[in-house]
Amino acid sequence: MDMVRTKLSRLLPVVAASAGVFALSACGGGGATPAASSSTPSTSASPTSTTVTTATSSPSSSSTPAAPPQVAQPADNGLCKAGDVKLALGQGDAGAGSVYRPLRITNSSSKPCSIQGFPGVSYVAGADGHQVGKDAFREGTKGNAVKLNPGQTAVADIQFVNVRNFDPGTCQPTAVKGLRIYLPQETASNFVPSEGTGCASTKIPGNQLAVKTVHPA
């Protein structure tokens, strides 16, 4: 009996110690707390503030209307222009089947101008002023320049052929109202009234008009 008690007294401390160890292990194992990494939201998952920028278009220099280009004015070369002169036909002299009349070119402007060469001459007809037949034939050589002060006059002689000398079937006689005149090196024309008859055909055997170079009056 004493021996039993002695064994029990030795076992009790061991059992108690084991129970304490079991209690500690049970307490530590069952109450494990989650890791901080699993309980704390990741920074990548947290919403971030997004700034939305609205683009505003500012007018660029290209949207500004460009100034219209400057049109270069033709240089004043001193030549007589259509608007600088008044034209008239002088009295003529009759020849063999022709009449010669001077085309008088008077500087009606307020400044001097020069003229040199052959005027362009042709018959015109109708309300629209359409040309009748060929241009006047240029007879002779180009003369010297003629300077015209305001009010001064130069002359170019024109030959008017009697178109009745041509075969009517070839000539195609047509009533004309006058002459269209281009001064030398000029692109604008003047009109000189002179009613008569011209050949509408450009295939007549000869010239119905001929003009000589400009010379002083």
Automatic annotation (TrEMBL):
Residues 80-214 form the DUF4232 domain. The keyword Signal applies. This is DUF4232 domain-containing protein. InterPro entries: DUF4232 (IPR025326). The lineage of its organism: Bacteria, Bacillati, Actinomycetota, Actinomycetes, Pseudonocardiales. Coiled coil: none annotated. Residues 33-77 are annotated as: Disordered. Keywords: Signal. Residues 33-75 have a biased composition (Low complexity). Pfam families: DUF4232. Residues 1-23 form the signal peptide. It comes from the Bacteria. The keyword Signal applies.
